[in-house]
Amino acid sequence: MYGNKVKLRFFFIFLVFLILSLTAFLILKSLEENVVYFQSPTDVKSLAEIEKNKIRIGGMVKNNSIFIEEKELKFIVTDFENEINVIYTGVIPNLFSEGKGVVAEGFLKDRSLFLATKILAKHDENYMPPEVKAALKEK
Prior knowledge:
It is a single chain. The protein is of the alpha+beta class. The chain folds into two domains: 35 residues; 102 residues, CATH 2.40.50.140. Helices cover 32% and strands 32% of the residues. The protein has a five-stranded mixed beta barrel. β3 and β4 form a beta hairpin.
């Protein structure tokens, strides 16, 4: 019914579509593993179960909550409704201080303890991440 040229074109179009679909799937799958979701302390307190995936928590560093012991930094992140204790080992950003916005990336130990692997506070004192700003406005 169809000639060889039509069959060849159909096969070529199908092959291109298949390759594009496979490429898109692989890109989205690899990005899925690198996505880190932002949550406020109130969101963490209301979790049904503790997640094993890497997450980001954000809020304000509570005043008088920063304690430095040898190589370990301990502080409290608050959204003015709930609080989470954070433990971090690593280089502290220069602009990290009490009363400033912070986003910490890491893993939850339980609903009140967060083990941070990265502190994201590399901004000037007037900037607040949009996620933190929105979460604080809701409260």
